[in-house]
Amino acid sequence: MAVSMSVTAAFIANASAQSYPARPISIILPFPPGSGNDTVARIIGPKITEELRQPVIVDNRPGAGGVLAADAASRAAPDGHTLFLPSSSVAINMHSARAKYDLIRDFAAVSVVGTLPFVLVVHASLPVGTIKELIALAKRRPKELNYASSGMGGTGHLLGELLRTSTGIEITHVPYKGSGAASTELISGQVHMLFTNLSSMAPHVKSGRLKALGVSGSQRSSVLPNVPAMAEAGYPQLDIGTWFALVAPAATPGAIVAQLNLSMVKILGMSDVREQLIRQGVQPSPTTVEEAASFLKKDVAGWGKIIKDAGITLN
């Protein structure tokens, strides 16, 4: 009987995959139009339409740091017609009390779409040129240095806390309402340092208003080739960037997930797509389904450890 049921289930799954997609595909986004997730979705969306011959609807559902969108996507019908495009903020906010979703349990990974390097920048007036010198200065002047972030519980906040806890320095967190405000205050010299995405800070580094001490990633960035990677600088624990991935509800048939993965790998290899993503500071990073699942699991665990070690409570 069990064998018969398993054969029937496999037959149904295969049949659904052969007829997929049968209607338009919706991609739920955790942030509003103009956000990084939105930009990425609008680059890959038309290509998904070309590949699967169904319209793609970008469904922005901002609110609660991505929690509302993730909760909704996790409850969607697992038939491949509703997908979710999370980023690292969704992995972080999974650890908040208000989150009902689990990015690993409630979703089937399709592929990583791209990664966005982070950079540690300091105001030009700070007398340091490397991370090692920054840490030495902070130890000589405990509690005198501060770091800005886009808000409590954001990536910049957590990376600042990781710097603090992993090196034993005493620095003060100064949260702002958004990355724009944090960047403006750093450039004007009101705060000392900031972890943020590389593409937005590169012009200010090149102009001399800011100094870049390290970038995330396995190697130096072509955007700022004179700035060492975190591991190269001697601080591999700071090698954390943000990312974008495509996932489906957990019970989506494996054949459909595999079909979506093949499409994404093809799309992310297209020269025009790669050029558009790179222009936005995103490095195209297609993966297998298994690689994507492993990547997300590691990222969720990593943010969880940072939150726990720093004693942060996400509201």
What does this structure look like?
This protein has 315 residues and is an alpha/beta fold. It has two domains: 2-116 and 241-310, Bordetella uptake gene, domain 1 (D-Maltodextrin-Binding Protein, domain 2); 118-238, 3-Layer(aba) Sandwich (D-Maltodextrin-Binding Protein, domain 2), CATH 3.40.190. It is built from eleven helices and eleven strands. It has helices spanning 2-18, 36-52, 67-74, 88-93, 131-140, 155-167, 179-187, 198-207, 254-268, 271-279, 289-310, and strands spanning 25-29, 56-60, 82-84, 107-116, 118-123, 146-149, 172-175, 193-197, 210-215, 242-249, 283-284. The strands form three sheets. It has a five-stranded mixed sheet with strand order 7-6-8-5-9. A three-stranded parallel sheet has the order 2-1-3. Helix 2 (36-52) crosses helix 9. The longest helix has 22 residues, at 289-310. The relative contact order is 0.18.
At the third CATH level, what is the topology name of the largest domain?
D-Maltodextrin-Binding Protein, domain 2
Sequence of strands across the biggest β-sheet: 7-6-8-5-9
Oligomer: single chain
DSSP summary: helix tally: 11
Low-confidence stretches: 5-11
Radius of gyration: 21 Å
Measure the end-to-end span.
48 Å
Task: Please write the CATH class name of the largest domain.
Answer: Alpha Beta
Any idea what the shape is?
globular
The overall number of domains is 2
Q: Can you name the CATH architecture of the largest domain?
A: 3-Layer(aba) Sandwich
State the CATH superfamily name of the largest domain: Bordetella uptake gene, domain 1
The succession of helices and strands, N to C, reads: HEHEHEHEEHEHEHEHEEHHEH
Mean pLDDT: 93
Largest sheet: 5 strands, mixed
